[in-house]
Amino acid sequence: QVQLVESGGGLVQPGGSLRLSCTASRSIFSFYYMGWYRQAPGKQREQVAGLAAGGITIYADSVKGRFTISGDNTKNTVSLQMNNLKPEDTAVYYCKARQTGGSDYWGKGTLVTVSS
After folding, report:
1. CB atoms < 10 A from the CB of 43, how many?
2. I need a labelling partner for 48 at 20 to 30 A (CA). Which of 30, 59, 84, 111 fits?
3. Where does residue 83 fall: left (phi above 0), alpha (psi -120 to 50 degrees), or beta otherwise?
């Protein structure tokens, strides 16, 4: 069973930065996709950023130019650097990993609150 543990959430003022980390219980090379999703109160979960095999990255339009996803296999970690945060970025952020064959794994989430 794969475990994903998110960390790095918290309260930050608009314009500030946070770095989220997702640590997996096995090498991130064992997944062909890892990504960050978020869910704000009353809204559906949405994809924020993804990292696919070969180093391909994808971003939601709402975070392009502000968020950066990266992987560190030495630490079994995928990180999300979030800059110039806005109140609308407030949400619970989840890490997801997908293995070949389609099995998906989710972390329990970390709360990001952007407020003055």
Report:
1. 9
2. 30
3. beta
